[in-house]
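Researcher: Go.
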Amino acid sequence: MNKAGYTEDVPPDRFELLDKIAQSERPIRVMLIGGTDSGKTTLLTFLANGLIEMGLRVAIIDSDVGQKGVLPPATVSLAFPEGPFDSISNLKARAHYFIGTTSPSQYTGEMAVGVKRLVDIAVQDADVVLVDTTGFVTGPGVEMKRLKAELVRPELIVFLERENELSHIKRLLSPYGEVLSLSVSGRAREHSREERREIRREKWGAYFSSAGLINVDLNNVVPTGTELFRGRPLTAEEKELLSSLFKWLVLSGWKSERYTVVKADIESVPRHYSKFVIHAVDFEKLSNLLVGFIDKDGLCLGVGILKWINFSEMNAQVLTPISLEELERAVELRFGRIRVLESGEELGLLRREEL
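Model: Structure:
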């Protein structure tokens, strides 16, 4: 299931935009911005196919982490179409940047850095770089768009809007590139939350369809994106004291600027402690957690689902479709903030501070 496919049945101003991009000095970076279901991906697919037919080399950066076309979800991805295509879901990525969640409001910095890193790679080989963005255009989403534009400095920023709804963001981004507004097509269709979830379920399922279980030595592949494993290990006495005070089974823990423990509740009782002193992580939240395999350049080789951690042996079991040859390039195992099954069922999002 895909939200957007290739069509030439578009408003006339889309053809005008296509000509404008084709006649621009190269390489040209084009950022597409619009709210949910405004037709950004449909426009990108139309532009990419038109430019390819003109003989131009096109790069696509898919940063819509919640409704990804280029797999896997929860990443920013770069693809170079080899020819015309019906949907960006058919494209194979050259590089990814790991975000680790489908709801990036707490990851505006990572989103901006990821787009910037992939644009820098893309412009080395492309005549045109098309950047698809999320439909997150309120609250933290405004700052996210500003950070992306400030870092990337696109020659052209295309807004898809209804009744000038994005005037504030247009004004905010105008110092960073030429701003162009298009009206949302009357053919654009809104999708319900259930439809979006179903689309993501199919994407997850497709990505993990060939996955296998591997063991990751956390002495060699550094766990990042979490407070776990930081500081000195807790002593047996410290674990026993914490277990006694809070009725926890303390599975592992570390002491740095505060105590960090992985625990399971033994009893359902009120617990009062300062989060500045103790950071408690429920062991259950680590089960089926999305993780990213990161190479020495900070790029994501692919993602996996954390199934188990043996803290005493510093070993993790991860389900992933990445080949063992590729996995040898991993230097980090970065923790995400969404729990998901290989079937595609999403078990829930975590807040950034929870891990």
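Model: The helical segments are 12-22, 40-53, 108-122, 140-152, 167-173, 193-207, 236-246, 324-327.
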